[in-house]
Design brief:
This protein is an alpha/beta fold. It is built from 12 helices and 16 strands. The protein has helices at residues 2-11, 32-35, 41-53, 92-101, 127-137, 152-155, 159-177, 194-201, 215-226, 259-271, 287-293, 296-302, and strands spanning 27-30, 63-65, 105-111, 141-145, 183-186, 204-206, 237-239, 276-278, 312-315, 332-337, 340-346, 353-358, 369-375, 380-385, 388-393, 398-408. The strands form 3 sheets. Strands 7-6-5-4-3-2-1-8 form an 8-stranded parallel beta sheet. Strands 9-10-11-16-13-14 form a 6-stranded antiparallel beta sheet. Strand 3 (105-111), helix 5 (127-137) and strand 4 form a beta-alpha-beta unit. The chain binds alpha-D-galactopyranose. Alpha-D-galactopyranose is lined by residues 32, 67-68, 109, 116-118, 145, 187, 210. One of its GO terms (molecular function) is alpha-galactosidase activity.
Length: 433
């Protein structure tokens, strides 16, 4: 009896859904931020080709997510979703096959409601049928949105229940067809704390509403993420939304991120281990955009096969710890990785600033040790540090550092403990306090 009870408890616990898919953050392209509904297969395949040409697929961006607006407004007589023949004149299968030839797996989009946010058929009540259609078309990854929710007397469910219907359909299909389950990206905009339960149903969950290509939108997402950063792990992660890197002066209204803001954006998304889905024009991508997206030192940490968690704040900096401030989120972050201890320092001010932290503020640092400092943007070792690091950062700029042990720190350094409280001589006399 006890063991049965325990099994039930484990099954309903918060552990991630380890069904073999989505262990690491998804890297790829998503059509939404750049195109919304305005695309054709041909236009999208040009993007896919540009990704190959720029070496992005090789760098790990291997997923191509077809977001909203790919179908006709109504289902066919058998209730099936039909691809829009104007957008996909050669059919959806041809589209996914073309992607596959370029080394890209295909992802698609639907809704836990009557319609998609763009007004196309949604999958509520059609979960198994639509999944079959998506699989038949050649997709293996599904983003699941939250528009056009049926009345309560219809669903008799919460957000969780509406998403569980699709998650269950995925598990049932995988079992029946003995195939790999679809990867499921939940997109309920952080309404009902999906970071608590999302890992039971899928591999990622959006933590808020839609991103926009300006700094206030990014800092607000970083602020939200700072409070739940530790919910990210293998097979289950906070999704900070599609990237806006490259959308400066593009889109309606056009984005206005500076180079430093775009770097901070990418650094935070990658080191917090969010999915990284590009959504800007890869055909005309600038060297700066490509430099950011192809930062192999940072991508390596995003894709660390041995450490699933991302960075989390150890000090808010400008504000007292745990202050909710969408304009000035947490500034000092740390985490572990297979390659060393990671630090991210973010200047949330509009002016340049000197920023300093003690190494032992990070849980992952050993006291009394020297550390080699590798700069993940300069791509080189910038020095050896002990006790603290001081940096000069531009407005909304970022530093991303990797620290590796370089032996004991010099003898006789005072104070004898970098942490002030409870520091004691062997005889029980306090050095501090
Ligand atoms: C919602 C989602 C976006 C995008 C659009 C498509 O707004 O949050 O990411 O998928 O729907 O209509």
């Amino acid at each position: 009896m006890a063991s049965i009870l325990l099994a039930v408890l484990y099954a309903t616990g918060t552990t991630a859904l380890e069904n073999g898919v989505g262990k690491l953050p998804a890297l790829g392209f998503n059509t939404w931020n750049m195109y919304q509904c305005d695309y054709t297969a041909e236009i999208l395949l040009e993007q896919a080709h540009a990704m190959v040409d720029h070496g992005l697929v090789k760098a790990g961006y291997d997923t191509f997510m077809l977001d909203d607006c790919y179908s006709l407004r109504e289902r066919d007589k058998k209730g099936r979703i039909v691809e829009d023949p104007e957008k996909f004149p050669k059919g959806m299968k041809h589209f996914t096959k073309s992607l596959s030839k370029l080394g890209l797996r295909a992802g698609i989009y639907s809704n836990a409601g009557y319609r998609t946010c763009g007004g196309f058929p949604g999958s509520y009540g059609h979960e198994a049928q639509d999944l079959e259609t998506f699989a038949h078309w050649g997709f293996t990854y599904l983003k699941y949105d939250n528009c056009y929710i049926p009345f309560d007397n219809v669903t008799q469910e919460n957000v969780y229940g509406r998403y569980a219907r699709m998650s269950d359909a995925i598990a049932a299909r995988a079992k029946k067809t003995r195939s790999t389950p679809f990867q499921l990206a939940l997109c309920e905009w952080g309404w009902q704390q999906p970071w608590i339960w999302g890992g039971r149903l899928g591999q990622s969950w959006r933590i808020g509403g839609d991103i926009r290509p300006w700094w206030s939108a990014l800092s607000s997402i970083i602020n939200q993420a700072s409070f739940i950063a530790s919910e990210t792990r293998f097979h289950g992660r906070n999704d900070l939304d599609i990237l806006e890197v490259g959308n400066t002066d593009q889109g309606t209204p056009p984005g206005n991120l500076t180079y430093d803001q775009a770097k901070s954006h990418f650094t935070a998304w990658a080191l917090l281990k969010s999915p990284l889905l590009i959504s800007s024009d890869m055909k005309t991508a600038t060297p700066e955009t490509l430099e950011i997206l192809e930062n192999s030192d940072i991508l390596k940490i995003s894709q660390d096969p041995h450490v699933g968690e991302g960075i989390a704040p150890f000090r808010w900096g400008r504000n007292p710890d745990y202050t909710w401030d969408p304009d000035h989120p947490a500034e000092y972050w740390t985490g572990n990785s297979s390659y060393g201890v990671v630090f991210m320092v973010l200047n949330t001010e509009d002016a340049p600033r000197q920023m300093t932290f003690n190494l032992t503020e990070s849980w992952a640092i050993r006291a009394g040790r020297l550390y080699d400092v590798y700069d993940l943007w300069a791509h080189k070792k910038t020095g050896t540090a002990y006790r603290n690091i001081s940096l000069e950062l531009p407005p909304h700029g970022v530093a991303a550092l990797l620290l590796n042990d370089a032996g004991p720190e010099p003898e006789g350094l005072e104070p004898y403990c970098a942490g002030y409280w409870q520091c004691s001589f062997p005889n029980g006399t306090y050095y501090s306090n």
